[in-house]
């Protein structure tokens, strides 16, 4: 039986991934912090697909609530969690001048500490690899961390958020080393996919059109990356930037006009 926990699964990309996993045959625990009604709607949609689902509230800034979330999910779904998607995130603006201890803690706790604790909990379930036709181990667990294409294209904007996501990318690689061969750990780095709360529609469309591919990503592109990781049994410790090539942007003032 395959069971998933997706954090922040009531809305936006978390919801898209929860429904995708349900279509792939997973029972899904839908975590939410404050979006109770959207989470319940996601649960209903998962159940309509013939899978078990439950909505579980937890504040990812509260260590005790984070520590209990995966065990609660496993208990509610009737067995160990085999796919963990660390999607929930706080994304608030600061820079070197405006960053405070509070903004540091909010970004570190939500984007790095919570995924670390959830990873520890998943590892503590005692998952064992299976064996394929060649007699080689096949991981039965998968963790997918939602990073950000910013880790490939650093700027001093959104500074503590970016530092936390850099830490999550480091966690992806080191956890992949630590948890082999039972659990694979990979990351997805979205670019302009869903309009941000602070963005105007004009700004969002301009951001999408100014990527290398002159387009952004859609939620189906994100779920396609998730599906690749589900199926790619020899892949661990990797990052897929699903961003229209935004992380490859090179036409900066220092190179413009250079032949």
From TrEMBL:
What PROSITE patterns is this protein classified in?
ADH_SHORT
Keywords (alphabetical) are:
Oxidoreductase
- Superkingdom: Bacteria
Pfam families per the record? adh_short_C2
- List the coiled-coil residues: none
The cross-references to InterPro entries, in alphabetical order and at most eight, read: NAD(P)-bd_dom_sf (IPR036291), Sc_DH/Rdtase_CS (IPR020904), SDR_fam (IPR002347)
Q: Which NCBIfam families match?
A: PRK09134.1
Q: Which family does it belong to?
A: Belongs to the short-chain dehydrogenases/reductases (SDR) family.
Q: What is this protein called?
A: SDR family oxidoreductase
